[in-house]
Design a protein that fits this description.
Blueprint (H helix, E strand, L loop, with lengths): L4 E6 L2 E6 L10 H16 L5 E6 L3 E3 L4 H4 L4 H20 L4 E5 L2 E3 L1 H7 L3 E5 L3 E3 L13 H9 L1 H10 L3 E2 H7 L4 E3 L4 H13 L3 H14 L4 H16 L2 H12 L9
Parallel strand pairs: 2-3, 3-5, 4-6, 5-7, 6-8, 7-10
Antiparallel strand pairs: 1-2, 8-9
Helix pairs in contact: 1-3, 4-5, 5-6, 9-10
């Protein structure tokens, strides 16, 4: 079904692994298309509540496939960037959570791919960066937009203009990743976090993602109104009745997978 990635569901977790280790999992048009297909499968899969995105081998995704891009003209390059934006905007729009487990190099398009996830967990061996200006281009998969929203405008300019590669501890310090683990602990800890999310109300989790993502770019008054409407929809769900009923009855909640 897939040639460049692996897709597996276990215990309600979808594991999406970029599987081009000889190319350090570099992104080309085929990989972007397969990732879009995989996340479409995840969105529709009732047996999958959370996705963990990672890379095979020593890289998460080391960037875009420069060998392929070097042969492209401007229009072909633009079309590839449109494909990347389509994927990453879609990942953000899916109401189910997507966790990036950054096991190694997350450079260029790989850094951008990680930023399209809901949050990032990093191995101590992880490396983040946007090195595009050294290749005569700029980030094109959303990096100039998502990076400042995560780390601030000044830091985003610094990282983009200097093309500096930073380690996991620095990425954590500036807010580019949320937690750092030893390499052997990364996926087990990612699974543990995914399972903690799975125990929560699925409608509420999805609604929280929608409220945060959509409200972030609104003015505060508009975002507050949007939160009220999103809250109201969740408040009218069966999950609310089950969650509050379980709390009052001092028992574990049993949410339906919707």
């Amino acid at each position: 079904m897939y040639e460049n990635i692996k897709y597996e569901v276990k215990d309600q977790i979808a594991f999406v692994t970029v599987d081009r280790p000889k190319a350090l999992n570099a992104l080309n048009e085929d990989v972007l298309s397969e990732l879009y297909k995989a996340f479409s499968q995840f969105e529709c899969d009732d047996d999958a509540r959370v996705a963990i995105l990672t890379g095979e081998g020593k890289a998460f995704v080391a960037g875009a496939d420069i060998a392929a891009m070097s042969k492209m003209n401007a229009l072909e390059g633009r079309n590839m960037m449109i494909l990347g934006h389509k994927l990453m905007n879609y990942m953000e729009a899916i109401e189910k959570p997507i966790i990036a487990a950054v096991n190694g190099f997350a450079l260029g398009g790989g850094c951008e791919l990680s930023m399209a996830c809901d949050f990032r967990l990093a191995s101590t061996k992880a490396k983040f960066g946007q090195p595009e200006v050294g290749l005569g281009i700029i980030p094109g998969f959303g990096g100039t937009q998502r990076l400042p929203r995560l780390v601030g405008k000044g830091m985003a300019k610094y990282l983009t203009m200097t093309a500096e590669i930073i380690g996991a501890d620095e990425a954590y310090r500036i807010g580019l990743c949320e937690k750092v683990f030893e390499p052997e602990e990364l996926l087990p800890e990612a699974e543990k976090i995914a399972k903690a999310i799975i125990q929560k109300a699925p409608i509420a989790v999805g609604s929280a993602k929608v409220a945060i993502n959509n409200g972030y770019d609104m003015d505060l008054k508009s975002a507050s109104r949007f939160e009220i409407e999103t809250f109201t929809a969740a408040f009218g769900s069966d999950d609310k009745a089950e969650g509050m009923g379980a709390f009052l009855e001092k028992r574990p909640a049993e949410f339906k997978n919707k």
